[in-house]
Amino acid sequence: MGLEDYKEVVGTCASITTMGQMLAGTLICKDIYRKGSSKGVDPMPFLGGIGLCILMLQYAFILKDLTMVNINIFGCLTNTMYMAVYYYFTPNTKDTLALIGKVTAIVVALLAYAQVENSEKIEFRFGLIVTGLLLSLIAAPLVHIGEIVKTKNTDILPFPLILMGTLVSFQWLLYGVIIDNGFVIFQNAVGFFLSVVQLSMFAIFPSKSKANSTSQKKTK
Is 0.90 surpassed by the pTM of this model? Predict the structure, then answer.
């Protein structure tokens, strides 16, 4: 039996884990609701997730891969709900709307490009685009490394999304090997590496908020 024989199994496992990653956003939204504000929370994991899922959905249609189609529809729906919660509780509606407008413009432009590109070249060229955007989204939290090292605090990083992202990228990497798609392999190999780097930050600099809540419980 070759790896191809495990395509459905790996694809299903990867889809389920990806759904788990997408549902991890509920933990962040729960925290936003508890605080009554989304201040201090980066909206890009949600907003970027919507845009990327739409573009990945287009790429899935190009590849005619039903597994990727289903998971990206699910991703669009969940991230839209998360972004709605973020927007409802944000104190900076103008900045958020401006960011939404920028992401929307980019997505619309790329979808329009996909409709006019040569059918023989679209898979490679559009794959190159979504790979670059995916890696940019995964690497986005790394811009906070300077602040994390300075404060020795990882509260700014979305731990649930990063943890699940590590598992997800590994499984889609395996799926990419099975379907022999260079872009799926490359984007998830790099994504796995970036996720591991971010995950290691939590081991080096534990969350202060969790430490404080633990100490408060002990004093009660």
Answer: no
In the chain, % of residues over pLDDT 70: 91
The closest alpha carbon to 137, from 101, 114, 106, 115, belongs to 106
Structure tokens at 90: 């944000």
CA pseudo-torsion sign 144, 148, 151, 156: positive
d(CA 212, CA 57): 42
| 8 A C-beta contact, residue 158 and residue 28 | yes
Encoding tokens for residue 206? 């534990």
C-alpha dihedral over 143, 146, 148, 152, to 10 degrees? 170
Segment 16-26 mean pLDDT: 83
Q: Are 69 and 58 in contact (CB under 8 A)?
A: no
Quickly state the pLDDT bin for 78 (edges 50, 70, 90). Answer: very high
